[in-house]
Design brief:
Elements: H1 2-69, H2 75-86, H3 91-109, H4 112-131, H5 141-161, H6 169-180, H7 184-202, H8 205-227, E1 232-238, H9 242-253, E2 257-266, E3 271-283, H10 287-297, E4 302-308
Antiparallel strand pairs: 1-3, 1-4, 2-3
Helix pairs in contact: 1-4, 1-5, 2-3, 2-7, 3-4, 3-6, 5-8, 6-7, 7-8, 9-10
Length: about 325
């Protein structure tokens, strides 16, 4: 009888313990899901406002500068502007019609969510162009080319930051590059050569040349917004004085470093030995200072530099010392 009550007590204790663990696990899961939901909602709100700013900026570039002066841009927006200049079809209608194939390609190439956001963004741009009046800012051709490209590029850049596009050219370039093995840049260049050649034939050589200025301005503005204000450089350093290099980057440059182990191979015999490899991320403005300091420590160090589009997380700057 005693053993029976003992077993019963142990079973109850075991069941109670499992119930408590399940309860704690459930609370953890609830907290985790709540945190994930908050992050998702915040991201969607941020994306919404970025795309909204992009739509208004692009619409202002269209109607305040380019449309009334018959200037065009590259890509899908350039095709829409060219058709609008040659026909009586409103730009708002052409923006949607020209981008429909690119939205389909976005669904195939980038996924359903990206395609939906892109479709909504393009529709929003079309509605903005159809319903909101923007004043014609200037008729000076150079100012139209430069500032029209600036606002259009800013609009595309903000939309990309928000996870959508209002110009589907890059989606098409990604699709072609994956299918035929070409580079994305080559596809975009080919498309724009065709567009500007058509502009020179149907409009005029002068408008085509000004439109190239518009395209270059828009491209630079787009790159600026996507890559960020600071242009970062990733630097990999292989040096026998790796400890001195590490201290120099932390104390003099004020940047964080990552040290990982590798093997150094050189010579005819292929001799290898263990060595610490240093990696850091700096801005272009700090590149000259790093080169000068590296010459002081190890002029023969092997240094590899490459552009970094953006950075997130981690400790880029060295944290200030506590006093």
């Amino acid at each position: 009888m005693k053993s029976f009550w003992t077993r019963t007590f142990l079973q109850k204790a075991f069941l109670n313990k499992n119930a408590e663990e399940e309860k704690e696990y459930s609370q953890y899961e609830k907290a985790k899901r709540y945190r994930e939901s908050v992050i998702t909602i915040k991201r969607h709100i941020k994306d919404f406002f970025l795309v909204l700013i992009g739509i208004f900026s692009a619409a202002f570039g269209f109607k305040g500068f380019l449309l009334t002066n018959h200037f065009i841009d590259g890509g899908a927006t350039g095709i829409s502007l060219l058709l609008s200049a040659l026909t009586s079809i409103p730009l708002s209608v052409l923006i949607i019609c020209v981008n429909i194939p690119f939205i389909i390609l976005a669904y195939i190439t980038m996924g359903k969510q990206f395609a939906i956001k892109t479709a909504l963004s393009i529709t929003g741009l079309a509605l903005c162009l159809a319903t909101i009046h923007f004043p014609n800012v200037t008729d000076d051709k150079l100012l139209v080319a430069v500032f029209g490209g600036f606002f259009l590029g800013a609009g595309i850049g903000f939309a990309v930051r928000g996870g959508a596009v209002i110009d589907g050219t890059e989606v098409f370039a990604i699709y072609i590059s994956r299918k035929y093995g070409t580079t994305i840049g080559d596809v975009i260049i080919f498309i724009n050569v065709v567009i500007f050649s058509m502009a020179a034939y149907f409009l005029s050589v002068e408008i085509a040349m000004y439109s190239m200025i518009t395209y270059l301005t828009a491209s630079k503005t787009l790159d600026f917004l996507i890559e960020g204000i600071e242009e970062y450089m990733g630097v990999t350093i292989i040096s026998t004085h790796n400890e001195e290099v590490r201290e120099m980057i932390i104390n003099k440059i004020g940047r964080g470093v990552t040290v990982y182990s590798g093997k150094r191979g050189y010579g005819k015999s292929g001799e290898t030995r263990e060595i610490d490899i240093i990696y850091t991320v700096i801005t272009r403005l700090e590149l000259n200072k790093l080169n000068v300091e590296m010459k002081k420590i190890d002029p023969n160090a092997f240094v590899v530099m490459n552009s970094v589009k953006d950075t997130k997380g981690g400790m880029i700057k060295k944290r200030p010392l506590a006093h």
